[in-house]
Amino acid sequence: MAPAKSQRMIFFYSFLFFLVVSLAGFVSPGMPDERKGVHAKLVADYIHSVIEAGRTFYSKQVVERLGKAISLRATENWVEDNTLPLPAQFLIASSKISNSTGVGMNYSLMSLWPLNKKNGPKTDFEKSGLRAVVDDPGKPFTWVVQRKGLWYFQAIYPDLAVTQSCVSCHNSHPQSRKRDYKIGDVMGGIVINIALGRFNPAQKEDGFLVPPENVADFVHAVIGSDRRVYSRDVVDRLGQKNIVRATENWMDNDTLPLPAQFLTNASKLTDKYNLGLGFRLISLWPINKKNRVRNKFEQMGLESVSIHPIRPYISQVKVGKVLYFKAVYPDLAVEPTCVNCHNKHPKSAKKDFELRDVMGGVVVSFPLKGW
């Protein structure tokens, strides 16, 4: 009897050990933890900083600079006029692409004095929020709203007149109800909606947490949409009509920045917000040495998205004492400009790119505070 009992005990403890090891492997450090996340207010700050950076760079370094240098105007009927889209139109076009991705976040322009009635407030909360950022542009107006059983975190950030072209357009437009704007004035708001899912009372205390992989998707959606609009509606369109080209030395040549340079310069503008958010282009075949991979994570990320371009490569990486969430998304050749530039560039290590090829990656990173 003793040997049989001993065998049963050995079997039991072996099974228990196997179960514990299996569960330990299942709940691995790299997997999302439902108890942790990024505060929704900080997520909205991240999204706003990227939106604002892209719009500021486009307004100042494309619209305003080329308006002065080569008299290239930005007009409301930009397609028919063979001109640049207005900064507001650029943002709206980008938001439509981003909002169509279905990542669980959307954004839009809104104003108490809209040129287009579609951009007016639709709820009392939106009216209150727009008034709040006009009165105090130093902080966003935030609230939580329920729709069809699901909860959403919403934030309105002031939409400032950053260039003279914004001021002149609104002050002279026949449909404008306000004609005394000055540079720096609040012209409206950028409204950001973040899906939170079903309501959990405990979330009131932790600030409504959003999984970090979702946060990275939100940021990447804005980056990708801005770049797509810039490549398609500005660089490719105006280049094909021989109105203005995009060149590497755009400042000296009075030309358009390349799409990759648009992303790089927008990334630099997000630094002023001191949020810890960063994004940059990387490649296995970089034209610019600054875009080479810097570590094993980036190398593995590029190899992964080259094979599986639908899914980003994600990880948590400790830099010093700070834990960061990092994601590598595929950088696809979505417009002919990208393909032609890389295939013809004298410093390019790969000259056979085709449309939809993975040319490199976009790295998104932000700190995981309190983890």
Give the SSE layout.
Blueprint: H1 2-26, E1 38-39, H2 40-70, H3 78-81, H4 87-99, E2 105-110, H5 124-135, E3 141-147, E4 150-160, H6 164-172, E5 186-197, H7 203-206, E6 209-210, H8 212-240, H9 250-253, H10 259-270, E7 278-282, H11 296-307, E8 313-319, E9 322-332, H12 336-344, E10 358-367
Antiparallel strand pairs: 1-6, 2-5, 3-4, 4-5, 7-10, 8-9, 9-10
Largest sheet strand order: 2-5-4-3
- The geometry reads as globular
Q: How many separate domains? A: 2
Query: What's the order of the H and E elements?
Result: HEHHHEHEEHEHEHHHEHEEHE
Number of helical runs? 12
Our estimate of the beta-strand percent is: 15-25%
Category from helices, strands and their pairing? alpha+beta
Describe the largest sheet.
Answer: 4 strands, antiparallel
| Average pLDDT level | 89
* Gyration radius, in Å: 24 Å
Q: Give helix % range.
A: 40-55%
Q: What is the total tally of β strands?
A: 10
The poorly predicted ranges are: 8-33
N- and C-termini, Cα separation = 52 Å
Describe this structure in words.
There is one protein chain. With 371 residues, this protein is α+β, with helices and mostly antiparallel strands. The protein has two domains: 237 residues, no CATH class; 96 residues, Beta-Lactamase (2-Layer Sandwich). The strands form three sheets. Strands 2-5-4-3 form a four-stranded antiparallel β-sheet, sandwiched between helices. A four-stranded antiparallel β-sheet has the order 7-10-9-8, sandwiched between helices. Helix 2 packs parallel to helix 8, helix 2 packs across helix 10 and helix 8 crosses helix 10. It is globular.
